[in-house]
Write a structure and sequence with these properties.
Distance between the termini: 56 Å
Strand order of the largest sheet: 1-3-2
Mean pLDDT: 88
Order of helices and strands: HHEHHEEH
Number of strands: 3
C-alpha cells in the first residue's frame, strides 16, 4: 500500500524533532551551511545533514550553492500548511470552550 503524505504531515514530522526545530529557528535569521547548523547541536556533519534532508523533504529548507559551499535557506511556504491546520483546530476548540462557558454561566443563573 502506497501512503501519500500531505504537506502538513511532512512539516509536522520534520518539526517533531527538537534539533530540527532549532535548525529552523536559526535559519529564520540567515542562511547557514550544514556545518554551521551542526555546531551548536554538538552533532556530526553527517547527523546534521540527515536532519536537513528531512527538512528538505518537507520543503522547509532548500540548499543553494555559494561558491564551494551549499547554503541551507528557510522556505516558509510549507509552514503555512501547518499553521492553517493548527488555526482550524484553534477555532474549533475556542468555539467549543465558548459554548461550555455559556452553558456554565446559564447553569449558575438557574
Amino acid at each position: 500500500m502506497v501512503e501519500r503524505k500531505s504537506v502538513a504531515d511532512l512539516v509536522f514530522h520534520a518539526l517533531g524533532d527538537p534539533s530540527r526545530r532549532l535548525m529552523v529557528e536559526r535559519l529564520s535569521q540567515r542562511a547557514l551551511t550544514v556545518g554551521e547548523l551542526a555546531e551548536p547541536l554538538n552533532m556530526s556533519f553527517a547527523g546534521a545533514s540527515k536532519h536537513v534532508g528531512v527538512l528538505e523533504k518537507a520543503g522547509i529548507v532548500a540548499r543553494h550553492k555559494r561558491g564551494r559551499e551549499r547554503l541551507c535557506v528557510l522556505q516558509t511556504e510549507p509552514l503555512e500548511a501547518a499553521r492553517q491546520w493548527v488555526e482550524h483546530y484553534s477555532t474549533f476548540w475556542n468555539a467549543r470552550l465558548d459554548a461550555l462557558d455559556r452553558a456554565l454561566r446559564e447553569d449558575e443563573n438557574d
